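hi! just following up on the protien thing from before. the input was this:
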Amino acid sequence: MVIFRTKISDDAHARTFMKNEIVTSPAYRRVVAALDDCEKRYDRLIKGTGATDDLRLASTVAILKGEVEQRRRLEVELLTAVETERQRIGQDLHDDLCQRLGAIALLIGSLAKEVSVLDKKLGEKVGKIPALVTEAIGSCRNLARGLHPVTLASAGLPAALAELAARIPADVKFHWPRSERIDFEPTLALHLYRIAEEAVTNAVKHAGAKNTEQT
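and the predicted 3d structure came back as:
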């Protein structure tokens, strides 16, 4: 059972950034194009089944079944492409942007000391900048974890959900009823994580729920 309480913040800018990155990826466009093609062929087959010939009808049904199976495979590929893009963006934020911001904070901190020698008040003002940069690094890391929950692979689903609850800026509590670790299949664990994340967000955002339980 997973228990979340109170409100989850919705970072619209982060969602827009992630969406733009995903929908412009080549893999995403290929899958969407293939799905559109399946839908067009499906419509043509439906319009052409007016004949009463049993053989033609059976052939049409077989083709439609194949189209359905292909569509399912493409949907799986689409989900995989989306998660791949999320992982790439999350890693870029954590490994590149956060590191650059950290270096900037160190440089500004050093600069503040030098400025203080010449102008104490100005040095104090400059000295406040590293704290702001450090705060930005924290936000960046939270965004990276939201896009790609690294803990999911390293420590399992319960730990990832606990981290999710901990990084939300609200009074959120997490409870897992079993003490032993359960090793879920990676794809299943990721789907369960996304389902929990989306379900709680929707419950709070659209229903105004204060307490949400998932079992």
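Residues 1 and 178 are 9 Å apart (CA to CA).
The longest strand covers residues 2-5.
cheers
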